[in-house]
Fold each of these.
Amino acid sequence: MGAKAERRYDAGMRFCLRDALLFLGTASIFHPAFADAPLRAQVEAGAALWASSGCSHCHGANGEGGDIGPSLLDVGRRLKPEAISMQIHNGGKVMPAFDNVLTGDQISDLVAYLRTKRAKTPKQAQAPPQRGQ
Ligand code: HEC
């Protein structure tokens, strides 16, 4: 009798788990917000690379622009991800190429980070990440 009850419990659990997984899978595939949005992990990795790879040296700590590099506060709105990626891979007239400095994955992370920069004008400061304000 004990074994039977246990088996029923087991089957119930498996059903729930499968349903939960199905639900999660469907939600992440079909939810529009997930379709094209950069993954948060990539954005965070990109932000770290931004500081450690020297980008901030020319473009400012938050991409607000510096003595050498232009503001990138609106770059996610202005440029396609492919164009941002090209710029980092190949550099520009002044900007060095990062092709041999960063891996493809690291450049993808930086692109994900820069895609979040969508200010209406290049000078417009971005709202800081919500910190109880
Ligand atoms: C030596 C200074 C310098 C460094 C370091 C630098 N940039 Fe740049 N960046 C520039 C300049 C200057 C431009 C404008 C194009 C040119 O003249 O090369 C530019 C342009 C860009 C653009 C295109 C902007 C637009 O509106 O077309 C992107 C995107 C960009 N940089 C991203 C990065 C990233 C990401 C890094 C770090 C991996 C980086 N830059 C490091 C100087 C720099």
Amino acid sequence: MSTEAAPTRAPAMAARAEQPLLRVRDLTMAFPGKRSATGRRGAPVRAVDGVSFDLEAGRTLGLVGESGCGKSTTGRMLVRLLEPTSGSVEFDGKDISRLSQRALRPLRRNLQMVFQDPHSSLNPRQTVARIISDPLLVQGSGAADARRRAAELMELVGLIPEHIDRYPHEFSGGQAQRIGIARSLATNPRLIVADEPVSALDVSVQAQIVNLMERLRAELGLAYVFIAHDLSVVKRVSDRVAVMYLGRIVEMGDKKSLYENPQHPYTRALLSAVPLPDPAAERRRERIVLLGDPPSPAAPPPGCTFHPRCPVAQEICRTERPLLRTVASREVACHMA
Ligand SMILES: Nc1ncnc2c1ncn2[C@@H]1O[C@H](COP(=O)(O)OP(=O)(O)OP(=O)(O)O)[C@@H](O)[C@H]1O
Ligand SMILES: [Mg+2]
């Protein structure tokens, strides 16, 4: 069902029961390889390699994994800041992965992104009024309406509407991220991809922004793809969690069962690094230290790409690529699970 013509959400709501808001299948991004000094191109970098998941309206999927595993590239394809090499992204039943920029325009308002560094993602020469109302002006709103809406949004995200004519540098990091969130909400989106939205903030401010995003999700029925490397943040905000390694999802499931009973050795290693709030449990915590760095996506190891660092790898792991399969009510790509 299309939401293009309908400014209200009612028709889209009706569609929700039948299909997920977001249906991602086999999403792949192969960046062209770097040129060497002799001008020859290296192997393509498969930054994202066959990612599939569903996301229901009003829900949050957490996306975690080490630096370089393809989280941001995935996020950017979901909102079509990047066009995938192959695979599909269906938003509300419509495949947006191949649409032209022109055909995308009416859908854009539904898909927004919040970035990691609030200050560098806000234009320092624009006032808050201009920054927040920009998406509305692009969509054809009048200046007075857009300004009124910007003030409303400032209030919604906990900023003082009287500060509407200030510039980004006059705000703290946490406040600047609230401006970024307000801007992302301007067009009444249904999906927000938040790429490390609190990683650049002080720990005390992180909690405030996470709480704000939780409240907005509940009030506005938003769906989030929440990208982070901090597993405790992801645990707070997500309904489901997908763990990525070298461009692929290696484990995905309901947050509670995944955190309590991880099946993939990589998930176990990631979780073993998270400090526990209970001091007794924290004393018993055994860290699984992974050897070496993740391999380059330009030259992934054969078989299971995790095998060179895996503490339980067997012969089959060196030769056969494990596919995602259902183990203990979640999906796991591991021969040993
Ligand atoms: N435009 C590009 N051209 C070539 N390679 C790229 C490009 N963008 C990303 N990559 C490569 O793709 C891989 C995935 O990058 P991506 O930024 O998606 O990872 P990430 O999981 O978001 O990492 P981080 O946690 O550091 O933000 C990396 O190896 C990166 O070097
Ligand atoms: Mg990233």
